[in-house]
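Supplementary Methods. Inverse-folding protocol.

Structures were first reduced to a discrete structure-token string of length 257. This string, shown here, constituted the complete conditioning input.
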């Protein structure tokens, strides 16, 4: 089992869209996936139409109250499971900050999942901030998958992420953390800027940048408002095709299990 943190400290870059739709596409390919919503806003949870759930987040497992297994719920798609989020997670940051092991609470919470063979991948959908929850995700992860919007400040954002990784390594919380992949999102083929940004990121980060580029589409952005993945909302559209391609590339890089 591998734990992948899907993170970017900048909001609005397609992080949750990538977490949900990559997870869905991987499950379609026969991979067993657990999506963990670590954002108190619960966008990944609502993107799968499960926002009515309360008291099912990682709040209690992170504080040692119950096991993470008690918070794992099935979704509409076989092989895709979720640990939902709710506003309680906003409060857990304060409580974890008081603990001596505040950087590794999530790592310890997820240890039982590593001990069994239930899932092939755990995808951590991180909040768009550099708070306790995101640093815990980076400490727990085997690698980082970073969605980057095709815009002018993309490289500047990546530099900040590299610094955060260095800080996590330096703290001793996760000596092996690295950027496993970069996904370019919101690509607009009508502009030269998008193509130039992709070229610049590829020049600096080489093979870590996925060949698959996620386009900017209306269907992709509106799917969460219906509580659906893009595959349920617009199965044959450009967004769905892109995330299916991304899932296949992901499997090629990592293997199906």
């Amino acid at each position: 089992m591998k734990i992948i943190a899907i993170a970017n400290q900048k909001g609005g870059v397609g992080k949750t869209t990538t977490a949900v739709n990559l997870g869905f596409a991987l499950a379609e390919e026969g991979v067993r996936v657990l999506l963990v919503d670590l954002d108190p806003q619960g966008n990944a949870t609502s993107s799968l139409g499960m926002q009515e759930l309360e008291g099912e987040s990682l709040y209690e497992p992170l504080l040692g109250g119950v096991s993470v297994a008690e918070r794992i719920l099935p979704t509409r798609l076989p092989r895709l499971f979720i640990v939902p989020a709710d506003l309680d997670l906003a409060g857990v940051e304060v409580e974890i900050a008081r603990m001596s092991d505040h950087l590794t609470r999530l790592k310890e919470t997820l240890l039982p999942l590593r001990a069994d063979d239930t899932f092939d991948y755990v995808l951590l959908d991180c909040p768009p901030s550099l708070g306790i929850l995101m640093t815990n995700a980076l400490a727990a992860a085997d690698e980082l998958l970073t969605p980057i919007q095709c815009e002018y400040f993309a490289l500047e954002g990546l530099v900040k992420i590299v610094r955060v990784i260095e800080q996590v390594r330096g703290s001793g919380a996760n000596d092996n953390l690295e950027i496993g992949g970069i996904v370019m999102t919101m690509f607009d083929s009508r502009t030269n800027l998008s193509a130039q940004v992709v070229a610049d990121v590829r020049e600096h980060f080489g093979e870590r940048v996925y060949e698959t580029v996620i386009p900017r589409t209306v269907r992709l952005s509106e799917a969460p408002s219906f509580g659906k993945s893009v595959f349920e909302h617009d199965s044959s559209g450009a967004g769905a095709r892109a995330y299916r391609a991304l899932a296949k590339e992901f499997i090629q890089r990592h293997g199906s299990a």
